[in-house]
Amino acid sequence: MAKIAFIGLGNMGGPMAANLLKAQHQVAAFDLSAKAVEAAVAAGASRAADVATAVKGAEVVITMLPAGKHVREVYEGAVLGAAAKGALLIDCSTIDVDSARHVAAAAAKVGLDMVDAPVSGGVGGAVAGTLTFMVGGPETAFARAKPILEKMGRNIVHAGASGNGQAAKICNNMMLGIAMLGTCEAFTMAKRLGLDAQKLFDIASTSSGQSWALTSYCPVPGPVPASPANRDYAAGFTAAMMLKDLMLAQDAARAVGASTPMGAEAAQLYSLFVNAGSGAVDCSGIIKMIDGR
Ligand code: NAD
Questions:
Q1: 183-214, pLDDT tens digit by residue?
Q2: Among the CATH numbers 3.40.50.300, 1.10.10.10, 1.10.1040.10, 3.40.50.880, which is that of 167-290?
């Protein structure tokens, strides 16, 4: 079984590390939060004093951090200098494509294999070990990463060269943001037209209006019992996370000159919602703003 360093044991990293431990891997854990490290130790990990100590002697280094600047800091500050020869680096954080390509190039320069492997599936998927991993990097690095990622996820997809995992993630989540807003607008209009929400759901979910936003995260209570709307929009996938991904998509669109007016509008609407104090609410809760509530 592999010796793995795991850096960033928050809502996602914690349960992902726990699944590696369940699969009999050895995990050295580091996080700035003592509470996060404590939980990992309780699940069977060993405590590392800092990033360099965690990484020393590890065959695989996994990072699950908030944003690009944290990944750059951790990589440039310790991982690239401390990683053993032949170690495989896997960054599972959702970050900007530029940072992903920057750290991958820096890793290649010191002769280390690296993949970007952002995830879809949320905390539920991290706990259940059913995440989807979108992986960018050389074929050889992907082949090495796959058996490790399979212990934390169900679908492991190679999206192409370094940074393409992040590209896939932001393209997917831009579609989700736009679809969620369209779904919220449709249910709001239906109510005003006197069309029952369940009827709209029954029809749209088997018609061309069908989407994941509708069938998994339906923004009104009732039609999808497990959707956050049934628990007063407790997340789920928070509006703040949605906004983060929509902003990453806008940065990427600007960088390559892609025209994304719908993505830009979605970013604006989620900015309004988050700035009004709703960042912790599930992303489907934006229906309240659309509805003028
Ligand atoms: P989180 O804030 O719960 O966890 C991040 C952890 O990183 C924290 O425990 C923090 O203390 C730690 N950290 C920050 N800087 C550090 C450093 N320099 N050294 C060591 N540890 C450091 O966030 P999360 O929800 O676990 O998300 C992690 C990543 O996964 C993000 O990039 C997020 O966008 C992505 N993601 C989250 C979800 C979700 O539903 N939560 C879903 C898909 C993807």
A1: 999 999 999 999 999 999 999 999 999 999 99
A2: 1.10.1040.10
Q: Which amino acid is at 78?
A: A
Q: Model pTM?
A: 0.94
User: Domain 3-161 is in which class?
Assistant: alpha beta
Q: Map out the domains of the chain as residue ranges.
A: 3-161, 167-290
Q: Write out the catalytic residue numbers.
A: 169
Give the pLDDT confidence of 113-165 residue by residue, as tens digits.
Answer: 999 999 998 888 999 999 999 999 999 999 999 999 999 999 999 999 999 99
Which of 19, 35, 64, 166 has the most ligand 1 atoms within 8 A of CB, as the residue to mutate?
A: 64
